[in-house]
Batch of 3 targets.
Target 1
Amino acid sequence: MLGSIGSQYAWKSRGSFVVKVFAPVNIAWIKYMGKTEGAPTNSSFSMTLKHLGTETQIRKISNSDHLSFSYSASGYVPPKTGQEKSYRFLMNAAPWSECLSQFGFQNQATTGTFEVTTLNNVPAGTGIATSASGFAALTLAWFGILVGDRYPEWFSLYRSSPKLRAAIARVSALGSGSSCRSFGGPFVEWDPKNGVSEFHDGIQDFTDFVLLIDSETKEVSSSEAHERVKTSPLFEGRVERADVRLTQVKNALREGHLQVLTKTVLDEAIDMHELFHTSEPPFSYWREQSRVWINRLRNQEAGLPTPNGILTLDAGANVHLFVPTHEAQVWESYLGTVDPSLRFLSDQSGKGAFYHD
């Protein structure tokens, strides 16, 4: 949490408007990997978490005749490349104005210097989707600034209108594609042609145990990985394989077939990582403990508390182990027993990014 950084949004005495938001990470069960002209090559499907993610505050710190931004030294400061990407995203006025006008609002923050303070409550750059939560939080907070004194109307509309949330998600995707899935939940599908849609059928209540195998920033960024995978001989047919698994996952959720989920989601994760291992040049995010957990769940190793552990990895070494929430207690006990040195976080499914009120 931001703590002393700031409280809820408020008009300050000097006319400075402060907006504070939270956006959760979303963890893809069906991945997209590889882009064509900036668009993902296949549809993706993810579970939105509730408490793990990014808190961002934006406030105006001075008047000027141009628009500029600074990052506060408090809290998490993104690497220089991340800051530059954020600047370009915020300065590209066209998509922001287009979205605002679609819903009857105008840009009220065309000039001035704004301070962005952001804090992740999970390690950044380690395959826990903080770029998604970071850009989702940045997008939502900046929209709150742009609407100025009409913020109460915007706030109310955001809570009530799926259409507005989808429009905001489209803007956010310009900064980070997967961030568009952090505005809804518990499950969100992103179709490159039809946009973002929430999925509410069947089983919904899962707990994610995030096994912290590696907290170091990864050497190959997700953006670079999207380019390298195109050199893999396994990239041919990737779209078709992902589409088949997407259908299988949605049907399994509807019908309550947990065993289908455990196999399909893990197969999908391994498929994505095999693209990394066979690209030119090849690379790997896995560590030895990543492989241990993959084999443990793939082989249904003796001692697992239930057969319902759903394992996936994003572009990193850390493992996400999803279990039905009513089984979370026995799985947590198991994690502490099978590897007492293991560090892990846990979170449940959530409903997406929100403004603090």
Target 2
Amino acid sequence: MNIDFFTINFFPVIGIGFLLIFLWKNSHMEEELKFLFYRQCMLIIIEDLLYNAELLLPYTNCSKELLTLATALGYTLRPVLLYFLISIIIRQDNRKRIRLPLFIPTIICAISSFSAFFTDIAYSYDDMKVFHRGILGWTPHIVMAVYLIAMIILSFTHKGKTNKFERTLIIEISLIIIVAVAAESLFGNTVVLRTAVTAVLIFYYMFFQSEIYKDEIIEEQKRKIEMEAHFSMQIVKTLAETVDAKDPYTKGHSYRVAEYSREIARRMGKNEDFLRKIYYMGMLHDVGKIGISDAIINKTERLTRDEYDIIKSHTIIGEDVLRHVTVMPDLYYGARWHHERYDGKGYPDGLKGEDIPLEVRIISVADVYDAMTSLRSYSPPRTIKSAREEIEKAKGTQLDPEICDIMIKMIDEADS
């Protein structure tokens, strides 16, 4: 018999060699997953050695028992290859009720293969060391078919991280191995199956590499976003603290307005983007006061008309400061319009009702409440009860009635 060792060994050996190098050089893959690939490579190498032994032993003076042992081990190991390939697919699912039944076909195959020592019901070798298949001789092929079916089913049902793309990949892998199993059954040469499993391992390895690379990119983007968000918050806090520092009586005012505003928006069912935006708007609603003289801001006597006009200009200054923040184009809303009134009698633009952006209507309620309950250079703080009554009176005139109701509920809950 002419044995083409090049055909039998070249593709599996080269493929496994490259895969082992990839695994050895890979510092990103999880150690547990890397172990699964190493194990699969070792099984393919062992199966390859056994198959070589099956082909070589008939040309030696070995006994039939040794040849039968090599064949039995080879038949047993082939479905084991598929079992452990499935174990890579269901790597996050450690339920014994799934894994134990999956191993039963391999046990059946092993019993059938090793029965050749006692009976020829599965296969046998004659005195010339020629192979003869028995009634149960197709058991290893049937078992491999069972594993292929299980592979497809489990890719859709197990509780791991399998996504749509991975499921499609698994189906394609199963089809490749089905063809390889059919080739082995028809031609009696496992080189196709061994090469197919090796190729599948390499493709699946590359898939995991792409997933790891994708996850790394996503994580890097998340880190950048978090850093940008943190940096933005630091800038916002610095600006707010700078504003509050101009008036020692209102220290923390911007922070409290932002907190109240975010809680009101949360109770209105707004999403995280809205909550983040209104928090920034609340923190910066008075940023225009940076451009107002400390003497005017901290004046304890009644302001003159000119001084009052200067104070009112902080809304325009605030807009100018925030207008060019491109990452949040409407950030300036709170700064410009937080002194607008629901009845249209506010400033600087006399906006009325729902023409005032929702974020600003929320901030206005929070601003009025905190202004009343905080110590000011020109007036002592009001009691919570008095502030609640004023909010109630301002419904529909100065402030949005729906938002007032939410603020009143917050006050009552905090006071109870």
Target 3
Amino acid sequence: MSDAFIVCSNLSFSWPDDTPVFSELSFTVPGGRTGLVAPNGAGKSTLLRLIAGELRPSGGSVTVDGLLGYLPQTLPLAGDLTVAQVLGVAERIAALHAIEGGDASEEHFATIGDDWDIEERTRAELDRLGLGGLALDRRMHTLSGGQVVSLGLAAQLLRRPDVLLLDEPTNNLDLDARHKLYGVLTDWPGCLLLVSHDRELLDRMDRIAELDRGEIRWYGGNFTAYTEAVQAAREVAESNLRNAEQEVKREKREMQQARERATGGPATPPGTSRTPAWPGSSPAG
């Protein structure tokens, strides 16, 4: 698949009431960091859900090259789960502790596999996202909204995905947590497709994909470069419109002048007489 990590071919999707969202949308997402922008309601989150497999397209196909990680806006995390359970590491860490405690059961080794550094990797990932002091047995209902978001991202990163989809990942994050996330994504080595209204985060992207009226337009560079390109294109379009309007006015003048030459004088407005007044006569007759 060369450098294309996500391929959408003739992708179509409608809601159950037959309201169309996409119709035969085709695009590819290469490696690196891509910011997906669009007006609210254009279908950004729906598109991520289609790529993630949460929704099924009514037509076309989605192909993802490699392991996929997906962080939605709303995380379906039960309040009684522990941090380790949400991260997906609880069983492996428990098996590791059992072996360290002298229990050499074969099932523990099978559970761990080759992931003997799972606890260290988990701690390191939590620390990168500002959650270094979080106990692995802590329950979810005791965490803040920002901690839940960061924990959800940590869970995806621990899976070592090749493709990462993030939907508004800085929602509920304080300034320090946002900067932690910026640093993590700056070092991201795979394919990242991100939906966000966070301009500082979008300015860390390699390219911007604009979803507009069911089509995607690509812009190289970050969000600032994108806005400058859009503004420049708008100014060119406005200039072309002004030039076209002036050209229409010029053509109308030339046609008027041609009519005047053909009739031997200025064109007469409708409803008036071209009969000249005789010398010495009054206009009233």
